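Record pair follows.
FIRST:
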Amino acid sequence: MLRASNKVKLIDEALEGLGIDALPGGIYGFTFSPALHNSPLFRAKHFRSYEIHKLDDGLIYLIGFVKNVDATRFKDTKETFDILIQPEPEPEADVLLTIPYSCISQHQQFAVPTDHGIKISVTPQNTN
């Protein structure tokens, strides 16, 4: 449903492994390096890989699951805060959240193939 509303299709095989910054809009793929400006995208979803969407207008989104309190805070504040995002829903982190790359203010620049979620600093850009 989210993919349809974002109007994205799975990355073409010929483009696999390229960084999100070099890819055309209208695609999605999976990565172990979420939130990097040049995250490489792949067609196959692997254990604990993150889904990334690049819309036709060039906006890039990290897709993941967070605690309800963090999802609410993301929608209701403009203050920077740390958030733990999971690639799959978990008992206490089961709210789907799409985080625009433009809201990510700080993150660790490394691959996370087996880590339990990633902690990133976000600065929401809501209009409340």
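SECOND:
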Amino acid sequence: MVPILTVAAPLASPAVACSSARPSPDIVLIVVDTLRADHLSQYGYAHDTSPGLAEFARQSTLFRNAYAPAPWTIPSTASLLTGLSPIRHGSLERGSTLSTEPATLAGLAVRKVNGLFAQVDG
């Protein structure tokens, strides 16, 4: 089984979403470790390997290019969630964790909305 993390949270508070201001979009962040894009049908693979993900991609913004700040999972994911380089957030070694100092995407979303959903498998 491939580890997958899915996070979804509306960025606007209910009060803002109900006002005349344009509401912020919902954001779904899917992070998959060790999955090759060239084996996903939404990226042109001939076999229908990921029908659910392909359908989701058709209704979403699909990024064709991605760049990682580090060659492995821990520092790259920490950078994705904090917006900081690995040197700045300090998660550089196996077993390292983020300090409570850098703000994370999930932490910012929780402050703006009443709820946050996260699912971790794998």
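COMMENT: Helices lie at 14-18, 51-58, 73-82, 86-89, 105-112.
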